[in-house]
């Protein structure tokens, strides 16, 4: 009896396997091939960069696909110290932390008021914010440069928010993140139930308290999506810092990386360039792989709303 | 009651003050100034710009580089959405519906979705530097190395004016596809399963499953993708500025409107002329947005 059963099980497994193979067919093979090809197209350039980051200069100029004879970790030390990638990365972290926090704070405040408080001019303010979605940032580039330059002449705070200051860039990032943040979050706040907030108001909570202690926590899924969107967008920004931060020690990571590659010459440090690229790519991939579910759903819901 | 009204007004004002002021100062005022600066010959030397009417726009018409930039943006506007959407739809379909095991999608689909998305989280400037190395013209380039080993003469991916534009397009597709695979997968997930099952019971093959069911039901998402990719094509800057020779070369064969705005403003210090370029770009973008809204509205009525 028992042998009979195990025979049946084994046999049915075998049949299932055959069935699967039959159904896979030539089309199935092609399918897998197509997916595999794109996987390689995606991964190989990145892996190739990682590999080159531990090569010596001679190896980089030799056969493109050779393996390094020894792992040259000092490339990373040179990129970090001499090419200042460490400094640029720190600058990026500082700017993006403050700007994302600021964007989320004042963006959600504006979105909340516009979504839930009818007042005269509400629609006009909302449209003012959302119209920014359709404008190319390049149109504003020249005047923006002078606006920020003039900010430097404002008494007291001027030296902190003018050209070549991180706080100045933070303010610009926040302003340019407003259209999408307000657009997305006000749609989100509109969907939240009104009863909870009203109950709290009856109990004597202020408008501000209702916002911070009830509405913000309820809006968490939307807040997370848009925070991810803003972090990625601001971290990857290149154009605005290129215009607004012209002093080298203030640069953010994207500027630093772009500069190492364009500062061509005979003294070009190619292995440090690859190490710098690796330093820019690897943390992003690690963070993405850990949070990929939230990042994917955050970015796509941002796009579909 | 009056006190409550007052409190409410105070609350609204205090919550809107900071965002509105920042937005007016850094976004709205530059846009408005740009339209005025576009009608001046300002080069930043004098305090007040000299008004010259539409001269800058007249000059633009005769500027060969400007037309090259426009034609590149135009070509990208056609090709980037088309190629990216076709590839992404194909993969999204395979990963979610068209798997050989039936409607479950293919094995390992989660893995593919994660990996295809990789390029999306990298900064465009970083991708540009990466591909500069991939495209190196000598034997140490990732592509030319193996080709030379096989005896094929190397291709100047970034140095040959006939090829460089296609290299730019290729990198843009490379970076975009993963995002749209995930976007279309999300769209597919919202289509009820039995829709596909019913069709399959009726004997629909994978081709008709794709063209008769997937594509029509996903059409809204495809339109969103088309608008997003269109804006990407009009906005392209970093990939061209960082990756290609002479920031948009060789011989302006890859330059785009955004690159010409930056070049004119911050390398030639022709602020008036650069702003005129920006105004033209503004009308292209708004025109594209209105056009795509129109088209999608008509589709919906026909439905």
Can you tell me about this structure?
Chain A has 15 helices and no strands. Chain A is mainly alpha-helical and 305 residues long. The longest helix of chain A is centred in the N-terminal third of the chain and has 51 residues. Chain B has 303 residues and is mostly helical. Chain B has 13 helices and no strands. In chain B, helix 3 runs parallel beside helix 7. The chains are: A mainly alpha (305), B mainly alpha (303). At the A-B interface, helix 1, helix 4, helix 5, helix 6 and helix 8 of A face helix 1, helix 3, helix 4, helix 5 and helix 6 of B.
Structure keywords:
heterodimer; A: 305 residues; mainly alpha; 15 helices; B: 303 residues
Unreliable sequence segments of chain B: none
* DSSP summary: helix tally of chain A: 15
Q: Low-confidence parts of chain A, pLDDT < 50 over ≥5 residues?
A: none
Radius of gyration of chain B: 25 Å
Judged by helices, strands and strand pairing, the structural class of chain B is mainly alpha
**Mean pLDDT across every amino acid position of chain B:** 86
Distance, first to last CA of chain A: 60 Å
In N-to-C order, the SSE pattern of chain B is: HHHHHHHHHHHHH
Summarize the biggest pleated sheet of chain B. none
Distance N terminus to C terminus of chain B? Answer: 50 Å
Given the structure, what is the number of helices of chain B?
A: 13
> How can the largest sheet of chain A be summarized?
none
Strand content of chain A: under 5%
What is the average per-residue confidence, as pLDDT of chain A, rounded to a whole number? 85
User: Helix/strand/pairing class of chain A, anyone?
Assistant: mainly alpha
Radius of gyration of chain A: 27 Å
Helix content of chain A: over 70%
Beta strands of chain B, count: 0
Instruction: Name the chain pair whose interface involves the most residues.
Output: A-B, 102 and 98 residues
- How many strands appear in the DSSP assignment of chain A? 0
């Amino acid at each position: 009896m028992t042998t009979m059963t195990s025979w049946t099980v084994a046999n049915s497994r075998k049949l299932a396997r055959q069935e699967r193979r039959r159904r896979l067919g030539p089309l199935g093979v092609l399918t897998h091939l197509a997916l595999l090809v794109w996987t390689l197209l995606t991964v190989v350039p990145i892996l190739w960069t990682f590999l080159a980051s531990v090569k010596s200069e001679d190896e980089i100029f030799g056969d493109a696909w050779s393996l390094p004879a020894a792992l040259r970790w000092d490339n990373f030390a040179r990129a970090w110290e001499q090419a200042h990638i460490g400094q640029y990365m720190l600058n990026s972290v500082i700017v993006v932390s403050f700007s994302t926090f600021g964007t989320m704070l004042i963006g959600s405040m504006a979105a909340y008021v516009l979504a839930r408080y009818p007042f005269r001019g509400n629609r006009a303010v909302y449209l003012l914010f959302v119209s920014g979605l359709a404008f190319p940032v390049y149109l504003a580039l020249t005047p923006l440069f002078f606006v920020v330059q003039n900010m430097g002449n404002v008494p007291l705070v001027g030296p902190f928010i003018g050209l070549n200051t991180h706080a100045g860039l933070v303010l610009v990032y926040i302003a340019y993140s407003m259209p999408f943040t307000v657009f997305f979050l006000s749609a989100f706040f509109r969907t939240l139930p009104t009863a909870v907030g009203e109950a709290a108001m009856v109990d004597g909570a202020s408008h501000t308290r209702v916002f911070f202690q009830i509405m913000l926590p309820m809006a968490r899924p939307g807040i997370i999506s848009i925070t991810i969107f803003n972090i990625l967008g601001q971290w990857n920004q290149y154009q605005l810092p290129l215009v607004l931060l012209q002093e080298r020690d203030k640069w953010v990571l994207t500027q630093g990386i772009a500069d190492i590659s364009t500062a061509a010459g005979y003294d070009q440090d190619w292995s440090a360039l690859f190490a710098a690229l690796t330093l820019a790519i690897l943390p992003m991939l690690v963070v993405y792989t850990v949070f990929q579910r939230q990042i994917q759903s955050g970015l796509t819901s941002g796009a579909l709303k | 009651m009056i006190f409550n009204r007052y409190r409410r007004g105070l609350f609204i004002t205090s919550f809107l003050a900071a965002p509105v002021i920042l937005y007016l100062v850094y976004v709205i005022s530059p846009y408005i100034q740009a339209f005025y600066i576009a009608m001046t010959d300002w080069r930043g030397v004098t305090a007040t710009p000299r008004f010259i009417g539409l001269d800058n726009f007249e000059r633009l018409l005769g500027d060969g580089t400007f037309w090259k930039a426009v034609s590149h943006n135009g070509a990208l506007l056609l090709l980037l959405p088309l190629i990216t959407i076709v590839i992404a739809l194909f993969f999204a379909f395979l990963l979610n519906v068209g798997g050989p095991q039936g409607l479950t999608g293919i094995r390992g689909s989660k893995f593919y979705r994660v990996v295809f998305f990789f390029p999306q989280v990298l900064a465009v400037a970083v991708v540009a530097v990466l591909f500069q190395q991939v495209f190196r013209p000598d034997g140490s380039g990732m592509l030319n190395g193996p080709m030379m080993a096989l005896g094929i003469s190397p291709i100047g991916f970034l140095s040959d004016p006939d090829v460089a534009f296609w290299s730019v397009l290729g990198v843009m597709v490379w970076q975009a596809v993963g995002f749209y695979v995930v976007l279309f997968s999300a769209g597919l997930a919202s289509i009820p399963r039995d829709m596909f099952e019913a069709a399959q019971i009726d004997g629909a093959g994978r081709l008709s499953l794709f063209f008769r069911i997937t594509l029509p039901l996903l059409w809204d998402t495809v339109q969103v993708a088309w608008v997003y990719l269109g804006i990407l094509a009009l906005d392209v800057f970093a990939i061209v500025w960082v990756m290609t020779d002479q920031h948009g070369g060789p011989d302006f064969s890859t330059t785009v409107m955004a690159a010409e705005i930056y070049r004119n403003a911050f390398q030639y210090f022709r602020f008036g002329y650069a702003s005129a370029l920006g105004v033209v770009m503004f009308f292209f973008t708004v025109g594209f947005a209105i056009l795509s809204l129109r088209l999608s509205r008509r589709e919906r009525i026909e439905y």
